Sequence to fold (212 residues):
Amino acid sequence: MSFQNLLRWLLPKEDHFFTFLERQAVVANDAAKVLAGFKDSGDAVVIRDRVQDLEHQGDRIVHEMLEALGRTFVTPLDREDLQKLSKRLDDILDFANAAARACVLFGVEKPTSSMILLSDKLVECTTVLAETIPHLRTQSYDAVTAGAARVTQLEKDGDVVFRDAISKLFHDPTIDAKDILREREVLDDLEKAVNRCEQVADALTSLAVKHA
Fold:
């Protein structure tokens, strides 16, 4: 047993670090659901404002975690791993927020079918993450690995949607340049949000391998 692991075993458990990550995952999932709701509400400004509020909420959680790290000598996971997971979860929120803002900035009145598909993939990915991250607390690393694998597959599915959508944009002669720019910006932000979900999954897999 390493010295750091021995200290973790001897000293009081700092389980609130798991709580920070769990809260971040839930907020990311909430933001994804709000963004996906654009297909039903049709009000881009309302969606943007709600996603932005959740993004600010996520920022506050990150700040709380950083302050707690500064006060804590021994953490339940390596500091670098905690910070990496927190940063990747925050990135999901940032890109969801960017997608919502792009819809307002570029005047997207209703999402395209490709935007809807990618938004739905983001909801699926963040739902799995919100269900998987609590398994870190209980050291259920088989469940962590299984959840991470599911997110990785969803991201690959989302990547196919993104590539197909971009290809259609540039090969359809009936779409003008403004529409291409508008749709490309939103799709790009959505794809990056889904991609960050996979990066969280990669970090979770590495943790499971390290600690199992």
